[in-house]
Amino acid sequence: MSQQISRREFLKLLGAGAVTTAALSGCASATRLVKREPYTSMPEYTLPGTSTYYATTCRECPAGCGLVVRTVEGRAIKVEGNPAHPVSQGHTCARGQASVQTLYNPDRLQNAVRQAQRGSGKFDPMPWDEAIQVVQDALANNDPDSIAFLLGLESDHLADLVNEITAAMGARAPYRFGALGMLDARNTLVMANVLLFGHPGLPVFDIAHAEVTFSFGANFTETWLSPVFYTGAYGNMRKGTPGQRGYLVQFEPRMSQTGANADEWYPIKPGTEALVAQALGALVAEEIGIPTEGLFADVDVAAAARESGVSEEDLHRLAMMFAQSQRRVAIPGAGALGHTNGLDAAKAIMGLNILVENLGKSGGVSLMPESALGNTQMPSTLNDLTSLVEKMNSGKIKVLFIHGCNPVFELPAASGFADALQNVPLVVAFSSFPDETALQADFILPDHTGLEAWGYQKVSTASDRITLSSLQPVVVPVQDTRATADVLLAAVQAIGGDLAKQVPYENEVAFIKAKLEVLVGEDGYYAASDANTLWARWLQVGGWWDSDALLIAPDLTHAVEVLQKQPSALPAAAFSGDEAEYPLHLLVYPSPNLGDGRGANNPWLQETPDPMTTVMWNSWIEISPDLALELGVCDDDIVRVTSPAGSVEAVVYVYPAIRPDTVAIPVGQGHTALGRYARNRGCNPLQLLDIQKDASGNLAFAATRVKIEPTGRKHQLARMEDRVGVYGDRYGELYR
Amino acid sequence: MSETAQEKWGMVIDLDRCNGCQACVTACSLENNVGFVGEESAAYGRGMHWIRIQRYWEGEYPNITARFRPVMCQQCGHAPCEPVCPVFATYHSEAEQINVQVYNRCIGTRYCANNCPYVARTFNWFDWEWPEPLNEQLNPDVTVRRRGIMEKCTFCIQRIRKGEEDAEAEGREVADGEIQPACAQACPADAIVFGNLADPESRVSRLARSARAEKLLEELGTETKVIYLKGGSSRDR
Amino acid sequence: MPLKTRLRLPALVLIALFVVVVAAAAVLGSKSAQAQAEQPIAFNHSVHVEELGVPCLYCHSNAQRGQSAGLPTLEKCQGCHSQIDPGDSQALQDLARYAEENKPIQWVPVALQPDFVYFSHRPHVNAGLNCESCHGDVGQMTVAEPQGDMNMGWCLSCHKKLAPERFVKLSDCATCHK
Amino acid sequence: MTAKLSAFPKEHPHEHEEDPREHLMLDPRPREEMNSMVLESMQDTPVSYWVTVGVLGLLVGVALFGAWGYMISKGMGVAGIRRPVYWGVFIANFVFWIGISHAGTFVSAILRVFKAEFRRPFTRAAELMTTFGLAAAGLYPLIHLGRTWRFYWMIPYPNQRWLWPNFHSPLMWDMLAITTYLLSSTIYLYLPLIPDMAMARDRSTGWRKKLYRVLALGWRGTEAEFHHLHTAINIFAFAIIPVMFSVHTIVAWDFAVAMTPGWHSTIFGPYFVVGAILSGVSAVTMVLALIRGTMKNMKYFIRPEHFDALGKLVLIFSMAWGYFFFNDFNLEWYGGEAVGHAVMDYHLHGPLSWIWYGMLVANIIIPWATLWNKKIRRNPWAMFTIGFIINLGMYAERFMIVTFVLSRGRMPFDWGWYKPSLVELSISLGSIALFLFLYAVMSRLIPLIPVWEVQEGQLAHTLRRIGKAEIPTVSELE
């Protein structure tokens, strides 16, 4: 405890040095006017002008990559990967790199505010005492059933704390939501895992050691589950094993960045992933000579070929390749699972792994064991969220606390969440930014950003071992923000009584330390014999994890039984929107740079070109050259995209690697709030999605059809590439 | 005149590992105080990226694929940019055997950029802004360039210098892998490897001897210090 | 001649104006480049260095270890001064007040390089240079004074004189500019 | 020479029959009358003159220096240049004005060396173009610098930084060549001016007298003085010719030594020199037409015969330019290097290919179609128009050499297009205004006609009646 307090003071002192150094970054002539301000008392291990490094965890997506942040005199300068961390292995993605711009973002909320009229954007600053009073009153004066928490996807200390509080109060456990989870179809994958292996978590695919990888729409080098982990695995798949070059086959209607790196890319018809997997499975089973029952029995390969657009020869060749290779893995990605038959597709694709019995093996599929801090809680399904919306509409929810997600922006407009919010008497947002959801709240009590925060995160998306990642502030908070855990705990303590007894933590750090006690004496990357050592090592190393890779093998026999009982005739994918009126499939995918859109106000993320289109600072709609000719549109034309659920305007990018019956729009832009760099830029395609669900109760986000009409207006997209240099006159008049 | 350029720092980029994810681009920009310019300027070829990932298409739909190649200053041993600068703002560093740009010496003729076959140089068309408190993030080891100055990838010279200085102060040689530019450090696929080409045992030297090694526009005789390892053959099965 | 006078007056005014502007710019420029703002406390180097024999590195201890020599923390000042009665010394009273308020003292840098120059004390100190080689005999100064121009030629001449065998590296632009 | 051509009019019965007195050299007037004609032309300042000068001055102040100041304060970004087209209109203007500056030297020095008599009345007008063309050209290297305020780092002088400029850089050669050319062409302008200054000194009052007294250097017009002057002019005429060739060759090398495909060509040196002379001589015809049309008494000095002679020169240089162009184009086309073809493709089929075709029309088709015709050649305003068109064409050539080539580099991913910005256009307009402004002001300060040279020529030319024919004869001068 005392250590924590001294640490806070120390960080404050660091901040003082920052003022001078900031002034130093001006132009040369001004340096004469600089004043130098030495510390009143020198913090330990800080030397003027010398970097100090802190290990923490990235909060730009829920993957939980370990970071090492370089700080100089109290300023966070550069984000680097934590080399010891099993997820990031010393590396970072673009979003992680830009997290310093989240920290120092000029549009962050500077203090707790009250918004007298929702949506007005007129904020009245309020002292934190009053802010805590608001939370305290809300918790104390309302029926526990009428209090709801909506949290982000991260399985972090805050989720655990809120779970404890709600349990103690008798309220419902927090809802968990994030666009990345929705667009990864995480719940569907987890549900498949539960059905097949009885394991309520995400599987881990050992791409790194696979000779052959079949990816069904998994954009694992971009945003899928844990991009840094899987990108590292991709690199090792190609060149990690001497003498072996892994072979990647990608099935998806629109070439993703991952697909662009594949050795073979098949633009299959949206919704036919399950059919392709079934056909491949049947052929594989035939090749390796095992009897087919259930799912892979009586598969009409010719029909599958016809439906999907993959030729029969290719199917045979691919099946041979899969069957004959030593290490092979099939990945059920978001593109395959985002349909109304998504759960079936997940089973069929996982079925390929089960057929070749790669479970728990090198280059196969494994499961992550449960950590000492308890299991991770999976995201809420769309079913859960729709029931929340219903409760909000019927007035059963009196208080809604929202943290770590931006549902007004991230949930499809058709879900009715934004409207339902109007029926909740008290909405409290903990967002660090004035985002779309925060703008609909009565109070915004901004949390610290990731680099200023304490915490832990249980890595749940992908790692090769149990991984707990630590968060610690690398700088003193830039704004007058306060940790949400501290706010909740302060409110709970003020309420007192039973609740305070059941949630007895003084503050956030005390809570984290209490949770970590289970790790004392545990053998891992390090072993600490007492709590203080553990805490010191925990902060220094950046978390706690096993010393060696350790995953568990799923139970094969059970899985085989499930597959054998599964009938082979699967329902076809259903789509919203009549084919005659809405002739095109809409594919929305998280932007590789902006992710779910929370980074859209980081200028360097905006300026980082999209890997496939090289577009910066905007979003676009990808249209195949044939379709563009047919519609009479060309690059930079603004078109109106209409679905049964809504309509947006988007700028055309004629994209040579997409099916002519499909259009694609990245998610992440189209903010109406958040800040100066994000606002009024591009479109938010989630507005177009109709509410369609798969068997696991998840959003079938690829099940909406759209139509496109030219508007006659143009907007020049900022591209890194030169259109003529890259495309030449390949598409003739399109480029005039 | 035509002696082979001396070797020191070099970089190997494995195109088979590279998947075009852009982490290097962002990492570079944030390490080196590279300014961001906004949509309009970016649309008009004024992005300041020191490293960019070229994406070329191969084939026609449906047999189409994309190729990625990160391109930054190739640190030529015989650099076309060097002789044309009238004030030695860009010159060949004898000590480091790389191509150095001295910002405070640059007068902005932009001749070097015209003469760079790799289009590796960017020019500060304006004074870029970092609205407070974004400026707190600026790296104190790297000069913030004002308008009218040419800039380019430096192989993170500030990190090279720091590594050398640390090693010298501790009385030892620089260890292989100790010095890493921001791009190599960030690369999640581990495609970028940096090190001392003069040391035959360094990781970068060993990779540079690969049969897949090639240099960009090698026919120009620029003796570049960036070596690409050719990507996998995706189309020939 | 009417034309003559008509032309002469504006010409004279123009020339005079030009001379005045150039002279003013020169004076102001050199003044702003050399003028030293007043220090918050008139720290007396002579007393500390000459009379009391405090080594430079006692207060500027980072010179051996890093880029910046560093300024002593208030804590360090107070290490001695908490034992010393300020008496009627303005400087000591000021110091006592800073200590009381725990407020950092805002010193005005004396030896300063522009932003585009990278300078590190460590290699210089490690090479055995004395502080006074560059900063002058501080023991003879009350308030520290800037020494000479500290310009590029000054750096180079010393590099050439004292380390000719390493001049290739020490004259490399990237050694100081990056 | 012209005189000789018309010596046998009867042999060309279909041609227009000329009166030998159409030739200035054979149409002498008394010295005093000629002197006062010239002085009158200098002192004639109607309202229209002041309005013109005022407007030009305003353009110089606002369009040139105003826009430049704006660019300095904001950054080069207000110009249309971008990656990869780092040079644009400014450099095209620079090459263009250097080209214009070739007019004076060529017309004056080369024709003087070859004793072409028709040159006499307009050498000064052409030399002034050299000086002011260079003044306009010399601004551009400064304008296009990202940090103009640091231009002095290009000057070799001992300094505390221990740094010299890089003499390997063509830009340094440029700077040295241009300053040499500016200095020598100014002296070359000044030398033949001395006797005229003395003439003006003796015939004016007030500030003019003072000015001319200083400029005349105490010239009295003695035999010895004339002898020295002739020697000096002769030396300079010979010396300045290689300087002229070197200047434009070095400007060409700015491009040719770069490894950029489309620039890296051995032919660029002479190609640029010929192009410069083509545009320079065309510009001389334009200026002469303007002088003749707007200044008093000039119709006497500048006659159709001069336009005729210049027209022939233009035609010859248009052909020479066409020859070089064909060499450059044809070899690139045959060579078949991919990047070179991309560059060529951008010229031929790009969105701005009209500039390329326009250039061919202006530089080849129009001069070849018109200048064989003596009537057209003798018509000042027709020659003005043709000169204007050729200069447009030559400007287009420079524009394309600078920007088209840079648009198409070795990295197709990073190709780019270029659009000049308003600031660039404003500065370009301003520099034209600067040239005209300086010229207009100077036209009222010094005699545009080298009176003494005309008089000297007229003394040497006489008409002799041999039989029925009047035969012009020239006595050897010097």
Features:
heterotetramer; A: 736 residues; alpha/beta; N-terminal domain of TfIIb; Rossmann fold; Dimethylsulfoxide Reductase, domain 2; 4 domains; seven-stranded mixed sheet; six-stranded mixed sheet; 25 helices; 27 strands; 32% helix; globular; disordered N terminus; disordered C terminus; D: 478 residues; mainly alpha; Formate dehydrogenase/DMSO reductase fold; two-stranded antiparallel sheet; 18 helices
How would you characterize this protein structure?
The complex is a heterotetramer of chains A (736), B (237), C (178) and D (478). By secondary structure, chain A is α/β, with parallel strands linked by helices. Chain A folds into four domains: 143 residues, N-terminal domain of TfIIb (Single Sheet); 132 residues, Rossmann fold, CATH 3.40.50; 189 residues, Dimethylsulfoxide Reductase, domain 2 (3-Layer(aba) Sandwich), CATH 3.40.228; 152 residues, Barwin-like endoglucanases (Beta Barrel). Helix content of chain A is 32%, strand content 17%. Chain A has 25 helices and 27 strands. Chain A is globular and about 75 Å long. The N terminus and C terminus of chain A are likely disordered. With 237 residues, chain B is an alpha+beta fold. Chain B has one domain: 2-Layer Sandwich (Alpha-Beta Plaits), CATH 3.30.70.20. In chain B, 19% of the residues lie in helices and 17% in strands. Chain B has a four-stranded mixed beta sheet. The longest helix of chain B is centred in the C-terminal third of the chain and has 13 residues. In chain C, α4 packs across α5. By secondary structure, chain D is mainly α. Chain D has one domain: Formate dehydrogenase/DMSO reductase fold (Up-down Bundle). In chain D, 68% of the residues lie in helices and 3% in strands. The chains are: A alpha/beta (736), B alpha+beta (237), C mainly alpha (178), D mainly alpha (478). Chains B and D meet through β2, α4 and β6 of B and α6 of D.
